[in-house]
Specification:
Layout: E1 4-9, H1 12-22, E2 27-32, E3 37-39, E4 44-46, H2 49-56, E5 61-62, H3 70-77, E6 83-87, H4 95-98, E7 105-109, E8 116-118, H5 121-127, E9 132-139, E10 149-156, H6 163-186, E11 201-203, H7 219-228, E12 235-239, E13 242-252, E14 264-267, E15 272-275, E16 281-288, E17 294-296, H8 297-304
Parallel strand pairs: 1-2, 1-6, 2-5, 6-7, 8-11
Antiparallel strand pairs: 3-4, 7-9, 9-10, 12-13, 13-16, 14-15, 15-16, 16-17
Helix pairs in contact: 1-2, 1-6, 5-7
């Protein structure tokens, strides 16, 4: 059965679900997305990925600053949608909005709920060292990602995954789960499942300062940080008064005896090995010097080998 859909989303992750809906039998009667934002060096107002995709397919686009006022709610009600699908929209939906569509509002969430509720579930799963994540289609309620679970698909987290790589696997998985959920809803075969609140963690929004590497932590924990904060905001450390951004690294299966945490203990042609907490070792593979581009360590060493030697100390 074809459903009349209102879609609400903003970033690339949401655009994957919108693209799948466009190819489906369902009718997208309107798209909601956040207002255009300044982007790039010129700070030019730029449409969201969801808006750009909607306009390509001649779908009406609405960009209210908020859905809390009565005019915005009446405009939504006038669309007479069967369902509203929300994917990383970025605006809160008040109770009045949740009750407007005949089948309510459902959300594509990048976590196996209730594990990670909140703004940054992909990053937090990596930072925590989770071995598995996935997507959950959820019936929205007034809480923060607390509604009944309708459908799930899981996804392994590989040892070298970054947040960017995991995002790119979860986005199409979310689209697949969404279409399956709509099919089950149309056939009245959905069995909502309550969340166990005791299993929930809050995925706080990322802050740039979280990227500051604490070399007294063990190499595995630091490696998770580097992966979890790539491609944004990127883990970093200090070299004297300069900031070095660490784009990729490798946990080395060896131990050091007594080198201070954050000190260089070995330099090879392609890596800089750093002493970490609990006598563990992390090898830097790709870094970015202040004012420069991200480069493989071998290229950094070829150009500025004088910056690094055994005993050089990183961090504050």
């Amino acid at each position: 059965m074809s459903l009349k859909v209102v879609f609400a989303g903003t970033p690339e992750f949401a655009a994957s679900s919108l693209a799948a809906l466009i190819e489906s039998e369902h009718e997208i009667i309107a798209v909601y997305t956040q207002p255009d934002r300044p982007a790039g060096r010129g700070r030019k107002l730029t449409a969201s990925p969801v808006k750009a995709l909607a306009l390509q397919h001649d779908i009406p686009v609405l960009q209210p600053q908020s859905l809390k006022n009565e005019d915005a709610q009446q405009e939504l009600a006038s669309l007479n949608a069967d369902i509203m699908i929300v994917v990383a929209y970025g605006l809160l939906l008040p109770k009045a909005v949740l009750e407007i569509p005949a089948l309510g509002c459902i959300n594509v969430h990048a976590s196996l709920l209730p594990r990670w509720r909140g703004a940054a579930p992909i990053h937090r799963s990596l930072l925590a060292g989770d071995k598995e994540t996935g997507v959950t289609i959820m019936q929205m309620d007034v809480g923060l990602d607390t509604g009944d679970m309708l459908y799930k698909l899981s996804c392994p987290i590989h040892p070298h995954d970054t947040s960017g790589e995991l995002h790119d696997r979860l986005a199409p998985l979310g689209a697949k789960a969404l279409l399956k959920t709509l099919s089950l809803m149309s056939a009245q075969q959905i069995e909502p499942e309550k969340q166990d609140d005791s299993q929930a963690c809050y995925a706080h929004k990322l802050e740039k300062q979280e990227g500051d590497i604490d070399w007294s932590q063990d190499a595995i924990t630091i490696h998770r940080k580097i992966r979890g904060l790539s491609p944004w905001p990127i883990a970093f450390t200090l070299l004297g008064d300069s900031t070095i951004r660490v784009h990729s690294a490798t946990v080395v299966n060896s131990f050091h005896d007594s080198a201070p945490a954050g000190s260089v203990i070995e330099i090879t042609k392609t890596q800089i090995l750093i002493a970490c907490g609990e006598n563990t070792v992390l090898a830097l593979d790709k870094i970015q010097l202040s004012g420069g581009k991200a480069l493989a360590v071998k290229d950094i060493l070829n150009a500025k080998k004088e910056l690094f030697s055994v005993g050089t100390k990183l961090g504050s």
